[in-house]
Design brief:
Layout lengths: L7 H7 L2 E6 L8 H11 L6 E4 L5 H17 L4 E6 L5 H13 L4 E5 L20 H11 L3 E6 L10 H13 L4 E6 L3 H13 L6 E5 L5 H11 L5 H9 L4 H22 L3 E5 L5 H10 L7
Parallel strand pairs: 1-2, 1-8, 2-3, 3-4, 4-5, 5-6, 6-7, 7-8
Helix pairs in contact: 5-6, 10-11
């Protein structure tokens, strides 16, 4: 019988959550290192750990292996990522049946990255083209708690903020019980997004995603990929530490402390940290803040 207490939608209803996202290793030898990072952050009592879905078949196997190990050996609730790009409905169904039998309760359903030439000239085998389609399929056939992604500053492929918000709403209508945002560095962008979402009737929990700066180059690359804006005050600091990753990381910790503190004061239901398989920055942030997780 499925444990409904461990569904993220229900966890968020009882406490303000802290969660961490990891990605699978590229090979078997990297598994130990990832598990060590997860173990090092376990002392912060995360409400759940999310494991991303590998871009290729080889790393997808390690995604599943990591999910099962964290669930079974580390007594941590896991949110498994699942993307529909590159999968037939039969393949997706087989994955979901395995996860269901293994006791996975929570899934975040995503589209995944498109091939560089899109669908038109690709041999990619995909039954579903959108995350909303995958969400509907899971909701109609399984009892997982389903999460979805959202974009405070608009998805790079959306034609407008209104258009993007309609896709977020469709995900919820199709069965998503909570949303986790893409990274952002200006909290006002998140606050405006929440206000717009609520005005459109989106009532599910919206968990902000935070990525601490690790280097100037990496931050620019990630924001470029997801369409996030770098505010002028952060841009100046990135320029200052362009060739000094150690100082950039220290600055990133300070910046994230202020960012999370503001989000917590705003009353967010939780914070989801994009760890990038590195525990140092998140440890420093949480040691500094000592967040009260009681509901307000």
């Amino acid at each position: 019988m499925r444990n409904f207490v461990l569904r993220i939608h229900n966890i968020v209803a009882c406490t303000r959550t802290i969660s961490f996202e990891f990605f699978p290793p590229k090979d078997k030898s990297g598994m130990i290192g990832v598990l060590e990072k997860i173990k090092s952050l376990k002392s912060y009592s995360p409400d759940f750990i999310s494991i991303t879905y590998g871009a290729g078949g080889y790393t997808r196997r390690f995604s599943e292996e990591l999910i099962m190990q964290v669930k079974a050996e580390h007594d941590l609730e896991v949110m498994a990522h699942l993307t529909c790009i590159g999968h037939s409905v039969d393949e997706l169904d087989a994955i979901l049946r395995r996860w269901d039998k293994s006791g996975i309760d929570n899934i975040i359903a995503l589209r995944g990255d498109l091939p560089k030439d899109g669908f038109r000239n690709s041999n990619i085998n995909s039954t579903f083209q959108y995350a909303s389609d995958l969400i509907k399929f899971i909701d109609e056939n399984y009892s997982f708690c389903i999460g979805a992604a959202c974009y405070p500053e608009c998805h790079p492929e959306s034609i407008s903020i209104e258009d993007d918000l309609s896709f977020a709403k469709l995900k919820v209508e199709n069965g998503a019980e909570f949303l986790i945002t893409q990274l952002f560095y200006d909290n006002d962008d998140f606050y405006r997004f929440v206000e717009r979402a609520r005005s459109q009737g989106i009532t599910v929990p919206i968990i902000p995603g935070v990525l601490p700066v690790l280097s100037a180059k990496q931050t620019r690359r990630f924001t470029s990929l997801c369409g996030a804006r770098i505010p002028s005050n952060l841009a100046a600091k990135l320029n200052k530490y362009e060739n000094d990753d150690k100082s950039a990381r220290a600055m990133g910790v300070d910046y994230a402390i202020k960012q999370v503190e503001s989000l917590w004061d705003y009353g967010v239901c939780g914070v989801h940290f994009y760890v990038l398989n590195r525990s140092y920055s998140v440890s420093k942030i949480l040691d500094s803040l000592k967040l009260d997780r009681q509901l307000i």
